[in-house]
Design a protein that fits this description.
- By secondary structure, this protein is an alpha/beta fold.
- It is built from eleven helices and twelve strands.
- It is globular, with a radius of gyration of 20 Å.
- The protein starts with about 30 loop residues before the first helix and ends with a helix.
- The relative contact order is 0.12.
Length: about 400
């Protein structure tokens, strides 16, 4: 999480925050008290509907659906053997799991994409969230899924992948892990997020790492310091547990060398220590770094597609995704919003010089739009399919 101090230049003292930057009135302990998956889905959907005061009437159903957890069942009337619980990342929503969810459904999985507490509603709901709430919700859904399937797998993105690692050390029923850009190490500056959040009692700006327009329907662009601190605490706890005992599970990992949100070298180091069989990793890189055994190095510089690098947000979405895909409606340009309005306007107008990870500008790419889809998505699915065949 670089450019930590840029936020100090983004907002004058005394700025009044919008309703979206205050907690909603709906409760967040939905999953813990759910007595069925159906009850969980309905309660979360009601909470999203009540909290999303920004919803455009014409797109209300699409926005509420995208921010709510969902189930995808395989064909046939028999009880599915395999199930997969999917967990999105910090500030994201279950919408991020749609493309991969459909793929796993086609492979015969019962798919449940959960909604982490504090997400899918409004950024203000991350002002008081604790990572233990995420773990408790995840644990309850694991228990509920046990009645639906025989074998349980976990898939997670970023902080969601870290949560999966934590849970795999508490649940012997887990048969394998699919981890995308796992958050295994956080920057030293981000450690200050916790102390800074306490100053929000006196000046509300200190509660926020970033304040943005929040124009993305399915991802908070504004982010609280409290939420970053909770991810840091979750990483620290998970690393401590792993130092004592680490499950030997099959694991499939996808990461990008150019990721500015997580430390990809930490992912490579972690992967090299895994003893589970089988294991495989895809590593998108603009160079030729040394990588551990069982890691496939994939070039991420694609000049013919005007792509300079793969970003943190590029791994899990299909090019055909209607929101984040190649022709999708959303342009990820928040890295310019407060710091360079002229570049922000160019980026939003799709007049960028290239696509890639934010802050990866160069002389031949002065305006970079953050890549939000994986141009090699189908190749990645083939690798996952081969991995599933080996289980």
């Amino acid at each position: 999480m670089i450019h930590f101090w840029n936020f100090l230049r983004t907002l004058p003292i005394g700025h009044e925050l919008s309703e979206r930057h205050r907690p909603s009135t709906a409760g967040s302990a939905i999953a813990v008290h759910a007595d069925s998956i159906e009850a969980y889905l309905e309660a979360c959907r009601q909470r999203v509907t009540a909290a999303r005061t920004d919803v455009d009437e014409k797109k209300a159903t699409w926005i509420i659906d995208g921010n709510s957890p969902f189930v995808l069942k395989p064909g046939g009337n028999e009880k599915p053997q395999r199930g997969i619980l999917m967990v999105h990342g910090l500030s994201d929503s279950p919408f991020m799991m749609r493309d991969l969810g459909h793929f796993f459904q086609q492979q015969g999985f019962y798919v449940l994409a959960m909604q982490l507490p504090g997400h899918g509603t409004r950024p203000g709901d991350l002002l008081t969230v604790r990572w233990q709430e995420w773990a408790a919700a995840h644990q309850r859904l694991l228990e509920l899924m046990a009645a639906e399937v025989d074998d349980m797998y976990l898939l997670g993105f970023s902080a969601g992948a870290t949560l999966n690692l934590y849970q795999s050390m508490h649940n012997a029923c887990i048969k394998g892990l699919f981890l995308f850009a796992p958050a295994l190490r956080i920057s030293a500056m981000a450690r200050l997020a916790g102390p800074l959040s306490h100053f929000g009692n006196w000046w509300q700006r200190f509660s926020w790492f970033e304040l943005q327009p929040d124009s993305d329907y399915f991802k908070y662009e504004s982010l609280t310091n409290r939420a970053i601190h909770e991810v840091y605490e979750m990483i620290k706890t998970t690393r401590h547990l792993a130092s004592r005992v680490e499950p030997q599970l099959p694991v499939f990992v996808v990461a990008s060398e150019n990721d500015v949100a997580v430390d990809s070298r930490a992912t490579l180091d972690w992967f090299s220590r895994q003893q589970g069989v089988p294991k495989h990793m895809l590593y998108y890189s603009t160079g030729q770094p040394a990588v551990p055994e069982k890691v496939t190095l994939i070039p991420s510089r694609l000049p013919d597609q005007n792509i300079k690098s793969f970003s943190h947000t590029a791994l899990m979405q299909s090019p055909s995704n209607p929101h984040y895909g190649k022709q999708g409606e959303h342009c990820f340009c928040t890295h310019y919003d407060h710091l360079d309005p002229a570049r922000y306007r160019r980026c939003k107008a799709r007049q960028e010089d290239c696509l890639g990870e934010m802050f990866d500008e160069s002389a031949d790419c002065e305006v970079i739009r953050r890549l939000t889809y994986n141009p090699l998505f189908e190749d990645m699915l083939t690798e996952i399919r081969n991995f599933l065949d080996s289980l």
